[in-house]
Design a protein that fits this description.
heterodimer, A: alpha/beta, seven-stranded parallel beta sheet, 7 strands, B: about 250 residues, alpha/beta
Chain lengths: ~240, ~250
């Protein structure tokens, strides 16, 4: 079946890899912070794009609602909310501006976008996929990032129960992936970087995990070794 | 000894303030509304859901220190079906429950407003272990603050600040009564004063994780062993019985 799929944060990293992977088989509506003309250069030619910066959550959800109306989707099958940001710093010297940005982009905007998607996902008994992180268990130099991802995990657990029978809700926790986010965040992985998965490998693992629908699910290096980027049902 | 309590005008916060005053502490209470005055109580008014107001008030909070104990207690809930709760209410909840304590913790730890050694306490919820259908954004806010507390425990310990996180179950407060299903049995809930007493003694003993009472510990353990089953029970006993949307 050709699906209608919304992917946020699709102009770089995991989101872009996922959009690139799914575009040949499905109808993709991508969102990101980049200007439309820049996004169109990197996204697959048949993917739609709306510019949705998530630093203001209320604006983000309103823009998504409008964008879904403009492309004429009356219902869609999958919302995969990938967009995220983060900064590396000492907890006691964290700038409140960055702290708030991390919470707004990763947590608040994602929550409000999930809410905006409900009426259209419900029409197809669709699936909402949130992207957490293995860092949602806590880590000292990215405390706000961890908090935002843990918040998503708590949200997904409760919402999955609330929406049961209407829209299936899942959260997937990717392990480290070699994306531009680390550089933007000011993190240098060093030798450990060799163990980071490529975005396209993670996109494969994500596609299979979305098709299965289990939640929560950690997509770690061990799962990769176990063949979870090769063996799985496609969307 | 000097303590800062956020949300000190009602509920568990009020109980913290009363206990600390009785123990002979100087107490600074940060709240939207002012409570009855006391000799050693200094009250600062601030709406923690208002970013500009908080940023304006931070210097006064720092100046009123340095603190031996800080309790980030202020919190609100919003119950009902997730999609029935307005966006601005969800956003405000996240700001009060998650963002404000994080901003304040960074400001206090980074400005020398904490005595060394001192204690910093975050108040999460038992929902961290159980899930909370019927309050999905509240659950998000409390999971976020729990993991923030865990993340900063080690770096702040190096500065002489010991971080604890508390996971209270249902308390006998107006706040809990407003958000529980109708006809819920309030006698099962722990009185706020008992909770404040137990939390303070656990925090003074340096505990990183504080869960109150045997019943709550069993629930937390069950939530870890059988997360799906426990969240399903929460759905049956809370979500399916909520008759109204409340914030």
């Amino acid at each position: 079946m050709r699906r209608k799929i919304l992917i946020t944060g699709a102009t770089s990293g995991i989101g872009l890899a996922l959009a690139t992977r799914l575009a040949p088989r499905h109808e993709i509506l991508a969102t990101g912070r980049a200007l439309k003309k820049d996004a169109e250069k990197i996204l697959p030619a048949n993917a739609g794009y709306i510019r949705v910066p998530q630093s203001d959550p209320l604006v983000a959800s309103a823009t998504i609602r409008e964008g879904l109306r403009d492309v004429g989707w009356t219902g869609f099958h999958n919302a995969i909310l990938v967009a995220g940001t983060g900064y590396v710093c000492e907890a006691q010297s964290e700038d409140p501006v960055r702290l708030r940005e991390t919470l707004d982009v990763n947590l608040a905007a994602t929550i409000l976008i999930a809410r905006a998607c409900l009426p259209l996902l419900e029409k197809t008994n669709g699936r909402l996929t949130l992207i957490g992180s293995t860092a949602a268990r806590g880590s000292s130099h990215i405390a706000s990032y961890c908090a935002s991802k843990a918040g998503l995990a708590g949200f997904a657990r409760s919402l999955r129960s609330e929406w049961r029978g209407r829209v299936s809700v899942q959260i997937l926790h990717p392990g480290p992936v070699a994306t531009p986010m680390h550089e933007k965040a000011g993190y240098v992985p060093g030798r450990l970087g060799a163990l980071f998965l490529s975005p396209s490998t993670m996109a494969a693992m994500l596609e299979f995990a979305v098709a299965r629908g289990r939640s929560p699910r950690t997509l770690s290096w061990f799962r990769y070794i176990g063949g979870e980027s090769i063996f799985g049902r496609r969307l | 000894m000097k303590a800062l309590v956020t949300g000190g005008s009602a509920g568990l916060g009020q109980a913290f303030v009363a206990r600390l005053l009785a123990d002979g502490c100087d107490v600074v209470s940060l709240d939207r509304s002012t409570a009855d005055g006391a000799a050693n109580l200094f009250q600062i008014n601030c709406d923690l859901g208002d970013r500009e107001a908080l940023d304006r008030t931070v210097p006064a909070i720092v100046t009123a220190g340095p603190y031996d104990l800080v309790i980030f207690n202020a919190g609100v809930n919003a119950t009902g079906r997730f999609e029935d709760i307005p966006e601005d209410v969800q956003l405000r909840l996240l700001r009060i429950n998650t963002e404000a304590p994080m901003v304040l913790a960074a400001a206090l730890a980074g400005s020398g407003a904490m005595v060394r050694p001192s204690k910093m306490v975050f108040v999460s919820s038992l929902s961290h272990f159980t899930g909370y259908p019927g309050a999905a954004v509240y659950a998000a806010s409390k999971d976020a603050i729990a993991i923030y507390a865990r993340s900063i425990r080690r770096p702040l310990l190096r500065l002489g600040i010991s971080v604890s996180c508390v996971f209270p179950g249902p308390l006998r407060t107006d706040h809990a009564r407003r958000h529980a299903p109708e006809n819920a049995d309030a006698s099962q809930r722990m009185p706020a004063d008992d909770a404040a007493r137990d939390i303070l003694s656990a925090v003074r003993a340096g505990k990183a994780t504080v869960i109150l009472g045997k019943q709550a510990r069993i629930v937390a353990l069950a939530g870890r062993i059988a997360p799906r089953l426990v969240t399903w029970q929460m759905r049956r006993f809370i979500f399916e019985k909520l008759s109204a949307t409340t914030w």
